[in-house]
Amino acid sequence: MAGGAVAGAVAGLAAVTDSVPHGGPIVAVLGAVGGVGMFFLAILLGTVVTAAVTIGLMSVGGRGGAAPGRGPRGGRCGRCCQCRRDDRGGECRSPVPS
Predict the structure, then answer these.
(1) How far apart are CA 68 and CA 90, in angstroms?
(2) Confidence class of residue 66 from pLDDT cuts 50, 70 and 90?
(3) pLDDT in tens, 21-40
(4) What is the pLDDT of residue 75?
(5) Is the distance from CB of 47 to CB of 54 less than 8 angstroms?
């Protein structure tokens, strides 16, 4: 939502106009958008903000889904979700390649 807000703010401040009730790059290319350059810049900036927020949230929260003491996919070895490793420290015998 942050990326959409940034894109909308940039497009609004740049007075980008849209002559049709739907939008997207194809409408801009076909001439129904006024301020095509700023339209694409707004989309680019919104995409960058969305990517940055997503990466930031993933780094704060980790990958999620894993129980405490387990790997990112839930298995004890950290490479698989159905690890057959025993609690005495044996090797993972999962069919999932590492």
Answers:
(1) 19
(2) very low
(3) 887 888 888 889 999 999 99
(4) 53
(5) no
Pull the structure tokens for residue 32: 């129904």
- Judged on CB neighbours under 10 Å (0-12, 13-18, 19+), 65 is exposed
List of E strands, 1-98: 17-18, 33-34
Measured CA to CA, the distance from residue 46 to residue 62 in angstroms comes to 24
17 vs 86, higher pLDDT: 17
Task: Enter the DSSP assignment of 78.
Answer: S
Angle between helices 2-13 and 36-61 in degrees, nearest 10: 160
Query: Up-side HSE of residue 70: CA atoms within 13 Å toward CB?
Result: 18
